[in-house]
């Protein structure tokens, strides 16, 4: 992360100057952190459309990454899924020359450094994913692309910033999703004692399951 004076043209940031602040985050994969969560997301041999939510820095991307790996590999209760990942900021797969440096499973296809909206549509057209995974949904265009994927029979596994169910219900574009029941699971992450992450799972009506 970089902060300072921006150089803009026609409302778009071209570069930074007079840089005053840096935020360096060292990402690491934490395998099996989603093992206890996955059974709550399963719907027979499939999964519910799921959103993983938390404030910044609590571990949404880490949890998403491991969910992708576990779904791709499968287990005795669920066969491995074809997972398409739109990795807009190269944070999920950490690709180097197109090769993921993180383990996302054998059946996972990654579009690296690709805008979410375009990437979701490209994967739907060309890679026939059973599960589409995206990080940090937020814009109106993101929501429209997700709806398109939902109407194509593809499951969605995404993340979004929200600390609790009340904040989630205030999201500008999400109220219609809640009314239509597009998502069957909402997972809220929080920091527990000694920095451990804990999760709470809600159903599509925002009724707490665990």
Describe it for me?
With 210 residues, this protein is of the alpha/beta class. It is 24% helix and 32% strand. It is built from 6 helices and 13 strands. A 7-stranded mixed beta sheet has the order 9-6-10-11-5-12-13, with helices on both faces. A two-stranded antiparallel sheet has the order 1-2. Helix 3 runs parallel beside helix 4. The longest helix is centred in the first third of the chain and has 14 residues. It is globular, with a radius of gyration of 17 Å. The mean pLDDT is 92.
Order of helices and strands: EEHEEEHEEEEHEHEHHEE
Query: How many strands in all?
Result: 13
Q: Sketch the major β-sheet.
A: 7 strands, mixed
**What's the mean pLDDT score?**
92
Radius of gyration from CA coordinates: 17 Å
Distance between the termini: 35 Å
What is the 3D form? globular
Percent in strands = 25-35%
Strand order of the largest sheet: 9-6-10-11-5-12-13
Would you kindly provide a brief summary of this structure?
With 210 residues, this protein is of the alpha/beta class.
């Amino acid at each position: 992360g970089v902060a300072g004076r921006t150089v803009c043209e026609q409302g778009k940031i071209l570069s930074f100057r007079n840089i005053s602040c840096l935020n360096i985050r060292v990402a690491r994969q934490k395998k099996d952190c989603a093992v206890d969560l996955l059974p709550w997301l399963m719907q027979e041999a499939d999964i519910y459309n799921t959103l993983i939510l938390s404030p910044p820095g609590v571990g949404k991307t880490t949890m998403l990454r491991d969910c992708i790996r576990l779904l791709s590999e499968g287990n005795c209760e669920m066969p491995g899924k074809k997972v398409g990942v739109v990795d807009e900021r190269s944070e999920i797969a950490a690709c180097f020359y197109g090769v993921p440096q993180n383990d996302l499973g054998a059946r996972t296809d990654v579009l690296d450094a690709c805008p979410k909206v375009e990437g979701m549509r490209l994967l739907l057209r060309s890679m026939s994913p059973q599960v589409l995974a995206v990080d940090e949904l937020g814009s109106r265009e993101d929501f429209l692309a997700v709806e398109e994927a939902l109407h194509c029979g593809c499951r969605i596994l995404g993340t979004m910033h929200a600390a609790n169910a009340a904040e989630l219900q205030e999201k500008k574009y999400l109220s219609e999703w809640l009314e239509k029941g597009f998502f069957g699971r909402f997972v809220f992450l929080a920091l527990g004692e000694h920095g451990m992450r804990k999760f709470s799972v809600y159903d599509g009506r925002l009724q707490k399951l665990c």
